[in-house]
Amino acid sequence: MNYRVIKENDLFLLTDLAGDIVPPPEGEGEGQQAGYGLYRSDTRFLSRMELLVNGRKPIVLSSEADQNYVSETVLTNPHMEEDGRLILWRESVELRRARFIYGDVLYDKLTMTNFSPGPLAFDVTLRFEADFTDMFVVRGFMGGKLGSPERPQADAGELRFGYEGADGVRRALRIRWDDPDATAAEDGTIRLAVSLAPGASRTFELLLVPSIGGAEPGIAPRAEALAKLEADYADWVSGSASLKTDVPQLDALYARGLLDLRVLMNDEGLGRFPVAGLPWYAVLFGRDSLITALQMLPVRPEAALATLRMMARYQGQRDDAWRDEQPGKIMHELRRGELANTNQVPFTPYYGTVDATPLFLVLLAEYVKWTGDLAALRELMPNVEAALGWIDRNAERSGGFVTYHSESAKGIANQGWKDSADSVVHRDGEYARTPIALVEVQGYVYQAKRLLAEQLPRLPEEPGRDWPAYADRLAAEAEALRERFEAAFWMEDEGYYAIALDRDGRQVRSVTSNPGHALASGLFAPERAAAVAKRLTAPDLFGGYGIRTMAEGQTGYNPMSYHDGSVWPHDNSMCLMGLAAGGFSEQSGTVIEGLLAAAAHFENARLPELFCGYGRERGRPVRYPVACSPQAWAAGTPLVMLTAMLGLAIDGAAGTVRLAPALPPGMNRLAARRIRLGAGELDVDIERAGDGCRVEIVRNTSGFSVAFAARQTMAANA
Is 194 within 8 Å of 207 (Cβ atoms)? Predict the structure, then answer.
């Protein structure tokens, strides 16, 4: 990665490898480079933060942000002469920048050490600019009516920047320090004259405090803030399900996923929920947040409940074409910047997503199945019924399938997870026209109704509610959908399902990964499910590092594209859920091995949002230039690997959990601890034994009984 990013709740810092925020030259820079800054609530508060030594940029020695909550950059000075006179010998001074965020405050510490044999004197300059630019403008999506920044103000120990937004909201940034030798000017610079004896060090600490509407966060002492942040991360890891295998690469990927999920958590009073990803999607995001919470169920089920409550808070209430909002619909994306607040973009929130509504129901039903939390089901039943109402009204208008069509002037044309303009393409190269019925969305609808039909009869009786009858109706609707679906989506000549039906009911016959998302739903006939599993790992769809979004050889295939041949880890994780649920252990192992091989080539053993879909025979995976990293549902992918390898299947109503473990090639041992289930936790050890596995239940406080697949051997003390 050519950037470093740290985040805590609603504040994140995006810098170059030197730790600087420096705008690229006009016409240069792309993606993250073009948007370095300190961000809060979709606003770039800080647009320049540059460190200079005697007016020169230092040299980067190392740059790390692998812990996510703290970044550390080590720099040194270049050689400096003036008119033949030595000013500073090269690599005489070490400059160490350490930063973290706590309580919506950025803590910044610069430590300068003299490693030369003699005394040194030099000047340090820090240059700051604050443009308070809306995220949509930063990313080049649009301009608009905007407010105006104020001139910086400088006082002893303080720089202040302000902005009066077109939305009537005042945004401000205060930069504070205690060093009396540092002076500030109203051009936004801080200057410090430094003298160091041999081996001596000096520190300079800053606090960067953004505020919105005059509400400035409280400031804890640096040591106290860092200790609390470190303790919170330690609690996150110790309170999450853990994984230990004889494949170090998988262990590292799993640990990285846990850390990345922690940094991507926000809390707005209903508990921690996952935002979509850094740097551009640190917001509540319908399908991304819901799918990530689904991935996290065995590890942190409380994230699912918080996500469900957040989605319920913003559930659609009225017909509003500008926001693609309809009653009962679950939101797509929530923004809080100046353009959103002034209604220049429809993201307050925007509802242009077809899959978030059934995914909301799937997540709730799965959460109840895993935890037994019937109180949450009853609490959210008004939202459930509103969501089901939206699904049924939509399908009734569209021949029995849930479809999408944007009515917003600034909406998203394609409203499935593959939301780029070219992602739904016929074999003749024509782009499908809306309304479009996506294959995976029908799977989500079927899965939602089937799972709710299982859970509703468990609710306590209450006057005026016949839960068993409600469940029977949902089950019958699911079965009717299955019959319609099989007739409409199956491509006999391909032995596979179409990605979609277009507005004329024609199959969009491109071979894609989308049917893999529906594999876990139970929608497919058994023999067709087996055909889908086989095709997902065939050479045209599986390139060696993962399942491609579109098969090689299709008209729209492009390995460099966003959605038409690239590899998305979360896409693979959704397929893994279905492969594991269907008992397709060989294909599941193939996908896991491919993703592990890919992760080994990315920084910090981290799976990015996506990478290019070139085959493994060409060498290492090819990065996608503007992929977000960390990305929530990519971070959740190794968590799905755990449940897939265990073959975990839950029957909440019966209070049983089934284990059908299948270890991927090259793995012989797996130890899982603190799997969250029912009222407690499950610890289990798996060891390869012949063509099956030996299973030992080390601890079970879940209240669930454990059953085993036929080929597994249960240890004597299980």
Answer: no
How far lies 79's CA from each of 105, 148, 156, 191, 666, in Å? 35, 41, 32, 21, 51
**The pLDDT of residue 525:** 97
Confidence of residue 143 (pLDDT cuts 50, 70, 90): confident
Euclidean distance between CA atoms 707 and 107, whole angstroms = 51
- Give the up-direction half-sphere exposure of residue 328: CA atoms within 13 A in the CB hemisphere: 15
| Residue the block writes with tokens 């003036």 | 82
Question: Is residue 717 predicted with pLDDT exceeding 80?
Answer: no
Burial class (CB in 10 A: 0-12, 13-18, 19+), 687: middle
SS3 698: strand
Cβ atoms 261, 297 nearer than 8 A: no
In this prediction, residues 687-701 reach a mean pLDDT of 94
For range 24-53, the mean pLDDT: 84
* 3-state secondary structure (DSSP) of residue 515: helix
What is the DSSP-derived secondary structure letter of residue 34?
Answer: G
What tokens appear for 314 in the block?
């913003």
> How sure is the predictor about 711, in pLDDT bands with cuts at 50, 70 and 90?
very low
pLDDT in tens, 653-666: 889 999 999 999 99
Decide if 82 contacts 165 (C-beta within 8 A): no
The token duo for 306 is 């918080």
Please indicate, yes or no, whether the overall pTM of this predicted structure exceeds 0.90.
yes
Lowest mean pLDDT among 29-43, 507-521, 579-593: 29-43
Q: 312-353 pLDDT, tens per residue?
A: 999 999 999 999 999 999 999 999 999 999 999 999 999 999
DSSP 305-361: HHHHHHHHHT---S-BGGGTB-TTPPPSB---SHHHHTTSSS-SSB---SSHHHHHH
**Nearest CA among 103, 97, 98 for reference residue 11:** 103
Nearest alpha-carbon partner for 7 in 225, 227, 279, 302? 279
Give, rounded to a whole angstrom, the gap between the first and last alpha carbons of the chain: 46
Cis status of the peptide bond prior to 279, with omega within 30 of 0? yes
Phi, psi of 156 (to 5 degrees): -60, 120
Mean pLDDT (whole number) for 483-490: 98
H helices of 209-247, where?
A: 222-238
How far is residue 621's CA from residue 615's CA, in Å, rounded to a whole number? 8
- The answer to whether the beta carbons of residues 696 and 716 sit under 8 Å apart is no
Longest dimension (CA), the chain: 93
* 19 neighbors 63 (Cβ within 8 angstroms): yes
**Under 8 Å between Cβ of 297 and 307:** no
Can the peptide bond before residue 630 be classed as cis, meaning omega within 30 degrees of 0? yes
* Nearest CA among 480, 452, 444, 481 for reference residue 353: 444
DSSP 8-state class, residue 330 = P
* Pairwise CA distance, residues 180 & 156, whole Å: 8
Q: How confident is the model at residue 712 (pLDDT cuts 50, 70, 90)?
A: low
The Cα 191–Cα 189 span in angstroms is: 6
